[in-house]
Amino acid sequence: MARHVLSSGSQSALREANSARLLGAVRQFGGITQVELAEATGLSPATVSTIVKQLLVAGIVETRSTTRSGRRAQMVTLAHKSGLLVGAHIGTRALRLAISDSRFELLAERTLPLPSDHRLDTTLDRTALLAMELVEGLGSTTSEVLGVGIGLPAPVDPTTGMILDEGLMRGWADVPIADVVSSRINSPVAVDNDANLSALGEARFGAARGFRDVLYVWASYGTGAGLIIGGEIHRGPRGTAGEIGHTLVDPQGPICRCGSRGCLDTRVGAQALIDSLRISRGPLSLSDLLEFASSGDPGCRQVVADAGATIGVAVANLAVAFNPEIVVVGGELAETESIFLDPIRAAVNHRVLITRDDPLEVRRGELGSLAPVQGALAMAADLTHVPGGP
Amino acid sequence: MTAPPLLRMRHISKSFGAVQALINVDFEVKHHEIVALVGDNAAGKSTLARVIAGVHQPESGTIEINGELVTLPRTAIAQAHGIATVFQGLALAENLDVTANIFLGREVREHGLLAEEHMETLARDYLERLHARIPSPRTPVSHLSAGQRQCVAIARTLVGDPQLIVLDEPTASLSVAQTAEVLTHIQSLRGLGLGVVFISHNLTDVRAVADRIEVLRHGRFNGTFSAPHDAYEEVIAAITGATTVRN
């Protein structure tokens, strides 16, 4: 990493390299004691102590007294005196949760695999416990949490913060999710759809930065879109804006979870993709399917490419109707890169109206699976009017 | 045409005096598959794990590994067949560091001396493969949290390139953040192409990572379920005996 700096041999270059190594370890662990830092970096305890002092003066790290195995120890974390933000994405099969400082520097992050059709009470309980545990791991208390943002894979009513429809997340409708979590963590909580939050994340920190009109596509267990119009997320009065997973693609198709016939998700939702490989590969998980596609398995590749083409048509139609400056694609399916993205590009650029002068750019998101979490952090910050955000 | 399963056990019975721990149990694990074994206390879960690990000998029944009939009279022989087990107690040596624990009893030697550096490199590699958050392979185990210890115990199973990992209650008494890490490690094992037997009481954890759930009740097989498709209630009904399978 900093080896070329080391070879110059000067004292200050060495110190810089050592402090970069030390900061790397602090980032990886969130909170780590000085003794552990010496073990993790291979630096001497004296060197660790000197560097920590310098970083402390510069305001880059903070130290707190703690105990390890009954002994007093100095816990080192990145500076977060101005408070903490919590961002969570409660996905279909995983809970991803991150803690950042008020400048969106990630301090701690965890992923907890979730069962299919996970239950509201268990999952919200685990979300609150995980947030509290990670905050405590930073040597802080929940009183330092400024705000919590939560993303969910279903449309969220912007006025009530509740999930709209029983069919999309079984057992999650009509529950004031923000209140349930807020009563546990004791700070303001906001809830939004994960595609909207991913769009917000990419607009603030990632591939959509600097654009005013963005069509963001989140292709995961289901497909959704986040629409940014004039720099603002467009949700609609019921929060269903961008739900392209429930637009009609097959008038003769099966009935979707939402109750309508022939939705996009009945063709490209995770279950539909996995079912189409049942004869050739047997039961698979979505991550298996995507991994096999990336490593060149022809059947899996074709399933992902066909999904790209089908989603591409829905995206192209929406792009014609709403004329975005850019299309950004994220979610698990986008991890297969061009296998999934090229068919979307082809479909979008078949529409003459939007590509008359220049082709409409279809970009992969930069934040990967963290996009909804980053968006949730941004929403948490907006909730508390934290200054200093980008 | 299809390859034989990694592990196939047929008609396994085992009793301890008057206690029939396992009665005519069939059990299968494929490569790249996580099979959960659930059931009440004394349902026979741990006994089955110990039979797989070579600790207990079944009174009847057959065991095949990759289609080959084997006997597992000792743990060392089970290990030689690529079976690695983490029991509930973990059995880590508090006073030793992470590397020494991972290679305990199976130290790598060069010219009769311990190959310390080589073992440390390997230990680092195992921990990386599991995406572990452990400061260093030289950290003493007494400094680690419960979740980190579980991770060391899982890393220990990777010594000698196993094919099948048996984990007995790996998430019992862990916090949510630690459970998150251990479940992620279990998914990583599957990602490495290994077969995993995951024994647990916690149906949320089981359904989060398993492909298939096998239910034992009073030593008898009582149903097989698809983890992503079948509902909690069906699995719970089988555990409690509200539904039974005739066999």
Q: How does the major sheet of chain B shape up? A: 6 strands, mixed
The CATH topology label of the domain at 7-91 and 161-240 in chain B is Rossmann fold
Overall structural class of chain B, as computed from helix and strand content, comes to alpha/beta
In the CATH hierarchy, the architecture of the largest domain in chain A is: 2-Layer Sandwich
N to C succession of SSEs of chain B: EEEHEEHEHEEHHEHEHEEH
Distance between the termini of chain A: 28 Å
Protein chains sharing the most extensive interface: A-B, 34 and 31 residues
* Strand order in the largest sheet of chain B: 6-9-10-3-11-12
Beta-strand percentage of chain A? Answer: 15-25%
Main β-sheet description of chain A: 5 strands, mixed
Number of strands of chain B: 12
Structural class of chain A: alpha/beta
Walk me through this protein's architecture.
The complex is a heterodimer of chains A (about 400) and B (about 250). By secondary structure, chain A is an alpha/beta fold. In chain A, strand 10 and strand 11 form a beta hairpin. Chain A has 3 domains: about 5-80, Orthogonal Bundle (Arc Repressor Mutant, subunit A); about 85-195 and about 370-385, 2-Layer Sandwich (Nucleotidyltransferase, domain 5); about 210-365, ATPase, nucleotide binding domain (Nucleotidyltransferase, domain 5). Chain A has helices at about 5, 10-30, 35-40, 45-55, 120-135, 175-185, 195-205, 265-270, 270-275, 280, 285-295, 300-320, 340-350, 370-385; strands at about 30-35, 60-70, 70-80, 85-90, 95-100, 105-115, 145-150, 190-195, 215-220, 225-230, 230-235, 325-330, 360-365. The longest helix of chain A has 25 residues, at about 300-320. Chain A contains 14 helices and 13 strands. Chain B has a domain at about 5-90 and about 160-240: 3-Layer(aba) Sandwich (Rossmann fold). In chain B, about 30% of the residues lie in helices and about 25% in strands. Chain B is built from 8 helices and 12 strands. Chain B starts with 6 loop residues before the first strand and ends in a 7-residue tail after the last helix. At the A-B interface, helix 2, helix 3, strand 6 and helix 5 of A face helix 6 and helix 7 of B.
